[in-house]
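Project outcomes to date are best conveyed with an example. Our students and postdoctoral researchers have been running inverse folding experiments weekly, and each run begins with a structure described purely in tokens. The record below, which covers 244 residues, was selected by the lab manager from last quarter's runs and is presented without edits.
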């Protein structure tokens, strides 16, 4: 079971303090720089559609894929005009004759999907196969040189009407050899001092450095460029196929 199933109902609210409108707008701006309007985009790990919903309304042809059905159900509710092709599937098992101008993996989706070197290579090769000629892959991950996954301990609070949504994220386990963490995510919903709901899930992520991604790309015959955003200190890596 996808661990995000558990907190999917509250995901949009508890994540908004971390990924607000300013960050999302600049990420959408980067996509507009990479591909023209009307391009075919595959949003891998689309979740509840933070990017897919905006891109579809801007005129892009969007396919949103995620292994969490509850997360995608939230996306479908918000996609009132049914513009997005929604697919509930593991990306490793995804096969289609469609080809894409851009494939996106935002906010550590790559880190959750590619937990080993072999997984990462398989993922990149599968994504490369889905690209049109001159297509691109955009990977957004934490900069592993500026974070400490072994010591995550932070929380967010979001108010919506009379309700308070509190999310706490802490490291439960850390494996230094692979720079992999298992994080405990706890979401609580309050009305005043009364606890209305509480949900706990555990998210496993493998944190990749830029140099490690470069090595993976060399093996897969891909070129990688890092783009900087004003609103985020994370990595935004654009991968393109090298000429043979």
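After processing, the design step wrote out the following sequence:
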């Amino acid at each position: 079971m996808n661990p995000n199933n558990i907190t999917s109902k509250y995901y949009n609210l508890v994540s908004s303090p971390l990924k607000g409108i300013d960050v999302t707008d600049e990420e959408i701006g980067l996509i507009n720089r990479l591909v023209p309007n009307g391009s075919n985009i595959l949003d891998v790990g689309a979740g509840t559609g933070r990017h897919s919903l905006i891109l579809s309304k801007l005129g892009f042809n969007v396919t949103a894929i995620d292994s969490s059905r509850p997360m995608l159900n939230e996306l479908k509710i918000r996609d009132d005009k049914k513009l997005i092709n929604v697919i509930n599937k593991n990306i490793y098992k995804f096969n289609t004759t469609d080809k894409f101008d851009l494939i996106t993996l935002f906010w550590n989706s790559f880190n959750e999907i590619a937990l080993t070197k072999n997984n990462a290579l398989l993922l990149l090769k599968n994504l490369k196969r889905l690209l049109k000629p001159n297509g691109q892959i955009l990977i957004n991950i934490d900069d592993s040189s500026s974070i400490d996954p072994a010591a995550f301990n932070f929380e967010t609070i979001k108010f919506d009407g009379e309700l308070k949504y509190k999310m706490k994220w802490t490291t439960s386990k850390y494996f230094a050899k692979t720079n992999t963490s298992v994080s405990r995510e706890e979401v609580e919903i309050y009305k005043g001092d009364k606890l209305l709901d509480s949900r706990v899930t555990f998210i496993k992520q493998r944190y990749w450095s830029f140099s490690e991604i470069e090595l993976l790309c060399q093996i897969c015959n891909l070129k990688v460029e890092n783009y900087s955003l004003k609103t985020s200190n994370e990595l935004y890596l654009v991968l393109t196929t090298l000429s043979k």
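The first strand starts at residue 40 and ends at 44. Residues 149-206 form a domain with the N-terminal domain of TfIIb fold (CATH 2.20.25). The training component of this project remains on track.
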